Amino acid sequence: MNSGELNKRITIQKRTVIKIKGIQTDVWSNYYSCWCSILDLYGQEKYDAYNSKLENSLKFKCRTCQLLKDMLFKTKEFRIIWNDVNFDLKFIDTMGGSKAEIILQGLVVS
After folding, report:
1. What single string gives the DSSP state of each residue in 37-88?
2. Is the four-CA dihedral 22, 19, 75, 54 of positive or negative sign?
3. How confident is the model at residue 77 (pLDDT cuts 50, 70, 90)?
4. 25 vs 17, 28, 81, CA distance in Å?
5. Which domains does the chain have, with CATH numbers?
6. What is the pTM of this model?
7. CA distance 89 to 64
8. Buried-state track 31-63, b at ≥16 Cβ within 10 A, e below 16
9. How far is residue 49's CA from residue 70's CA, in Å, rounded to a whole number?
10. Whole-angstrom Cα distance, residue 13 to residue 10?
């Protein structure tokens, strides 16, 4: 992976559920910040996303690290912030166990 491609900064936040006066409330705190490249969906992938109501999604290609690997089966606990836009984390692609890169797919929160 060319480090020059990693030219966008994202922040990943983790959700914590707390109770305030008996009402559950989500509190988001910064978990990790990293450089990545933004990948658009294309071809069959874009068509499938449109049919699944995920057409407002992007992929973020990042360098693999342990913090990102720890998120693997906990996608509902995390969100991505890029350019002041919130993305719900929908999928994490380890690229077949790649030691160099990992792809996070996020859906724009409306």
Report:
1. EEE---THHHHHHHHTT-TTEEEEEEE--HHHHTTTT-GGGEEEEETTEEEE
2. positive
3. very high
4. 6, 10, 20
5. 3-108 (2.40.10.270)
6. 0.81
7. 16
8. bbebebbeeebeeeeeeebeeeebeebbbbbbe
9. 26
10. 10
